[in-house]
């Protein structure tokens, strides 16, 4: 299969855009670099009525700082506001829209769990600082719960300790959950991870990993590993935990490595000594639980729970403290992403530039090459975060190409990371469509009967704008795709879900074939199933699809016997630019046996 060897994006979202995703927004780099000092953190811990104040002292001036705020919406259906005041110098106000949220630097997932990221580099200072967070809880017209999980401040601060600290801050909002927490269909999201790259261990004295988890519950075990090593001490209470289990998200902060910690309802901040485990490339993995009894299921509801119902990893901070003569500037190119790379289209190339050394806020000039020929330069502003993006357009031509990005300036101490290349094969636009067979009872094998269209006349109400995305937020090179698509909104009249008394949910198998009559499509294309207007299942195609080929999948759905409207959409996010997007959905009403 001819596939681009990097993830291909077809359209960019406006930089800074974040969109709600029930399953979660994976952690991604927010800041990295080195400081002649240390990483400082402070916070308030535990679900609390607003306003919430966090007062703390910094030993020096920050070269980078961020204020994070966790807010509980109560449900993704409600909206409200949050205000963040930093040292009374500036107030940032966010309108929180739940499942419709598109705010800059707001990560909303699950049933209304918000994680807000606010740059505070120029607003914090050496000495006393104060952050106050308020929400619309209790205000007229606001239905959002509005309680505050935590206010958490992270800052890279210069000091006279004689140490240099290399650091990475990854932010997001993953929703790890078991069955029954995603609408009417029991989807599962058990693990998530993030990889920190480019560690310089010369003169290393120690390494520490700090994490923030929201919405965890005591007596429901969860786990974390760092480079495949389990973190935290196993629980000794075998009346509540499986043997050897850890409970990082136990609603007590700073107790995972021993000690009494701090009571903190639905919030868990932990710091782990990872000196013995750290390498040049480091991966942290968050696990909702483990299958302790070997039955193939992580069951949170058994007498001795095997895992969390749900838990949200929102932040991971890795810091490596070193004895080093002086700070050196070291910028490198961490990767290249492409967008709209089809024959005859104007494609976009994005190079991600990271600062692995002293955080100088420098701009980097990046040169782009296709098959060894320079096509232009672009500037990346790394700012105080140490992460920036250089973007350039290219009139894509068909065939195999090598795309490269080279750092032209500034000159730095390490040249080995100044260039990045990828190979890709550029083809014609794809054209995805669906072929759907009748749902079949998983128990009896009996097929559902497709009903005549005359039975369920569905009037067209009009067109509505739908925003869709696979990636996220304030890093254009990491945002996979999005477009605003005009789509028909249909009213399913005369079709009523069969929720009669006495009917039980049953499992049905829905056979779906995804066809591609155009150019090749990379792995990761989504399939979304709606049942009676509610999202019932979501999956992605692990393999790409060549032109003229297809891929078949069987999707499990759970509902009651009777008449149900089924709607299936391929690439609902709009991540694939196509010849014809009008054939991406299928809709029918079936009588389920």
Automatic annotation (TrEMBL):
Pfam families: CARDB, DUF3344
Domain of life where this protein originates: Archaea
Domain CARDB: 503-587
Residue intervals of the DUF3344 domain: 22-321
Protein name: APHP domain protein
Species assigned in the record: Methanolacinia petrolearia (strain DSM 11571 / OCM 486 / SEBR 4847) (Methanoplanus petrolearius)
């Amino acid at each position: 299969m001819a596939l681009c060897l990097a993830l291909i994006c077809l359209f960019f979202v406006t930089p800074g855009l974040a969109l709600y995703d029930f399953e979660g927004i994976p952690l991604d780099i927010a800041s990295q670099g080195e400081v002649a000092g240390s990483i400082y953190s402070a916070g308030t811990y535990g679900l609390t009525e607003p306003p919430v104040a966090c007062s703390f002292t910094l030993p020096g001036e920050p070269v980078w700082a961020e204020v994070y705020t966790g807010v509980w919406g109560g449900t993704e259906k409600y909206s409200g506001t949050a205000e963040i005041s930093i040292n009374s110098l500036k107030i940032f106000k966010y309108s929180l829209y739940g499942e419709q949220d598109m705010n800059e630097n707001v990560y909303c997932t699950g049933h209304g769990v918000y994680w807000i990221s606010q740059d505070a580099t120029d607003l914090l200072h050496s000495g006393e600082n104060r952050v106050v967070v308020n929400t619309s809880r209790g205000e007229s017209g606001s239905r959002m719960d509005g309680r505050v999980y935590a206010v958490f401040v992270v800052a890279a601060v210069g000091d006279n300790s004689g140490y240099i600290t290399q650091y990475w801050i990854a932010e997001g909002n993953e929703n790890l959950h078991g069955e029954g927490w995603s609408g009417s269909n029991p989807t599962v999201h058990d693990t998530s991870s993030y990889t920190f790259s480019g560690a310089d261990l010369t003169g290393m004295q120690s390494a520490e990993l700090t994490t923030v988890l929201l919405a965890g519950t005591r007596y429901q075990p969860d786990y974390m590993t760092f480079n495949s090593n389990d973190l935290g001490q196993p629980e000794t209470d075998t009346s509540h935990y499986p043997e050897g289990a850890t409970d990082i998200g136990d609603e007590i902060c700073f107790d995972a490595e021993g000690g009494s910690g701090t009571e903190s309802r639905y919030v868990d901040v932990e710091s782990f000594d990872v000196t013995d485990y750290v390498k040049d490339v480091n991966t942290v993995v968050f696990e909702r639980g483990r299958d302790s009894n070997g039955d193939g299921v992580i069951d949170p509801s058994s007498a001795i729970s095997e895992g969390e119902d749900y838990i949200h990893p929102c932040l991971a901070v890795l810091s490596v403290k070193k004895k080093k003569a002086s700070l050196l500037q070291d910028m490198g190119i961490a990767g290249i992403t492409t967008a709209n790379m089809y024959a005859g289209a104007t494609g976009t190339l994005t190079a991600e530039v990271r600062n692995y050394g002293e955080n100088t806020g420098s701009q980097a000039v990046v040169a782009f090459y296709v098959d060894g020929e320079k096509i232009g330069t672009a500037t990346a502003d790394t700012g105080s975060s140490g992460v920036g993006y250089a973007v350039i357009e290219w009139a894509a031509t068909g065939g195999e190409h090598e795309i490269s990005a080279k750092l032209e300036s500034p000159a730095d101490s390490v040249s080995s990371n100044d260039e990045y290349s990828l190979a890709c094969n550029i083809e014609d636009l794809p054209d995805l469509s669906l072929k759907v067979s009748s749902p079949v009872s998983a128990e009896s094998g009996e097929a559902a009967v497709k009903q005549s269209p005359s039975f369920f006349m569905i009037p067209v109400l009009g067109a509505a704008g739908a925003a869709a995305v696979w990636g996220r937020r304030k890093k254009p090179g990491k945002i996979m795709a999005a477009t605003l698509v005009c789509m028909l909104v249909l009213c399913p009249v005369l079709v009523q879900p069969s929720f009669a008394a006495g009917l039980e949910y049953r499992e049905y198998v829905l056979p779906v074939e995804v066809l591609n009559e155009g150019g090749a499509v990379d792995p990761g294309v989504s399939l979304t199933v709606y049942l009676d207007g509610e999202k019932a299942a979501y999956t992605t195609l692990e393999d790409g699809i060549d032109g003229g080929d297809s891929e078949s999948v069987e999707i499990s759905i759970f509902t009651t016997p009777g008449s149900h409207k089924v709607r299936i959409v391929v690439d609902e996010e709009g991540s694939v630019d196509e010849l014809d997007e009008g054939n991406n959905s299928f809709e029918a009403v079936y009588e389920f046996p």
